[in-house]
Amino acid sequence: MSFDNINNINLPKSNLFKLILFTVLAFTVLILSIFIPFLGILGLALISIPATKLMLEGRIWESIICALIGSLVLVFIDWTLPLFFSILVIGTAIIYLFCFKKNKGPFQIIIFNSILFIALVLIFLLVFSLIKKQNVLISFMDYYKSMINSFPDSPFIKQYMQLMAISETQFKALYEQTKSIFLFLPYLIPSLLLIYVFLGSIINYYWSLSIFKRSEVILKGMPLFQTWDLPWYYVSGVIIGLILIIIPHFNPTYDFAFDVVGINLLIIFGLIYSTLGFSVLWGIFDKFHVSGVWRILIILIISFFSVIIILIPVMGIIDVWANFRKLERH
Fold first, then answer.
1. Are 90 and 50 a contacting pair, CB within 8 Å?
2. Is 78 exposed, middle or buried (CB count within 10 Å of its CB: 0-12, 13-18, 19+)?
3. Mean pLDDT (whole number) for 288-294
4. Each residue of 22-31: pLDDT tens digit?
């Protein structure tokens, strides 16, 4: 079905009030992610579904109104957030409309949505820095470092040490061992944010596929998990990440920058090839007709052993050449 003939058939129109209410509830879930981080992925996946549904029904202005009203819930946290998320939701709806008309595949929609979010974050940080006349990222890093450095002197930590009967010497020894790790964590935000957004976009597409189907707006189905694949040249991301990490130290500034970029690349491509590794494993299960219960048990066993779990992304990389699943590749 193409977008051009949607209005020419008797499709039931969605109730605008219900979709606005749905959007408000989705943004509420997103707010709750402050306390339960995992909910953020679900909230991010939900917020654009009503506006996208209206957009695909040809109700463009109602789609924009739905996004604007729903995002107003965030004004209680910060006045800039409704602007950011309303643009995100409207942009996502436009991407779905464009890809629907051009008959694009699901992964193209997912990638476009992920790029949109990252681009808006960068623009938001740039504009905010210009308004504040200071670099927001540097200010955040300075605040974070001062917080970590003053961590042992926090009243809450003092009370915790007394409650758990931990001596100051023991705590300081543990603190010195882990301090460098905590100071490095903010530099992993780019890869973690990208993964977070990508997962949210995948869930968003699955839910959109299911919900829109009831209204006879048919999106392209996701390929079977056991057939997921990537072109061979994506391995270069892993190779570049490893090279940047193992480059001999020659300059403190460049060494740190290379390590940060290298670790972020390994996190991103490590997750990608872990997904492909599980896809290969699922294909092997199908080949040997392994029952659903045994599949779950084997995956749980693998997840509990760090040595075995490392083999999963390796399996995904090797499959590029070994082609365990006998996929047709061009």
1. no
2. exposed
3. 87
4. 999 999 988 8
